[in-house]
Amino acid sequence: MTLNELHTGDSAIITRIRGRGAFRTRLTEMGFIRGKNIKVVKSAPLKDPVEYRILDSNISLRRSEASLVEVVTEKDYQPVRPIGPGKISDALQRGPVVPRPGKIIDVALVGNPNSGKTTLFNRVSRSKEHVGNYAGVTVGSKEALFNHKGYTFRITDLPGTYSLSDYSSEERFVREHILKNKPDVVVNVVDANNLERNLYLTSQLIDMDVTVVLALNMYDDLLAKKDKIDLGLLSKLLGIRVVPTISHRGKGIFRLLNHVIRVFENEEPDIRHIHINYG
User: Fold this and answer.
1) The architecture CATH gives domain 3-72
2) Domain ranges of the chain
């Protein structure tokens, strides 16, 4: 449920702020913080903007802005309880995952065909999605829930695509998912051995100004060829966190998820939006 669905006099608890950058910072500065109670005071004559009461102050928001604030009723709200130490697989074996209000991270997996994207999805979700050597292996999107470090990850495996143009059904599907669902973090799975081809999609994600963490996958093949990549420099150049992974062995995934949390919580100091000069 989103804030703009509430009626005058309704109260709720904030569970998540969608969006990023200046918008998210502005709402935080005004007191829109997860776990805080908010009440609808009144609407303007044309029902836009809407006045809310939060932290003993009255704040007005446009309905388009309120639609990016997720809430739950006071009756349904449950404080977050960390799951404690342990492996991802241990947490997954404890039974069905119950989403935890305020600590849900929507993640979209985006990458070229054959980048190891679906293999990574299978690792974190313990599912058995089909993996093949041709474009369009993932016909539609697949979704999974799992808990990690007190957060519930809602992860969506999107079709493999080389770009976000509107020329194919896969490109259109991925682009529309990002624009309409506004995932908190996009994990861009990249073949470490073919950066020139794979980073074209990365550049399009950067141009869309979405929050990205780059999984530099198949890193073992790169090391086997005795090639090297300056991960710190690449992160700074792209303005996004780069994490080496070997998805078919499950290596680097724990670290990748930790960085997704840090990016979600705005705790990564080098993350910034860059403007790409295409000449």
Assistant:
1) Roll (2.30)
2) 3-72, 89-264
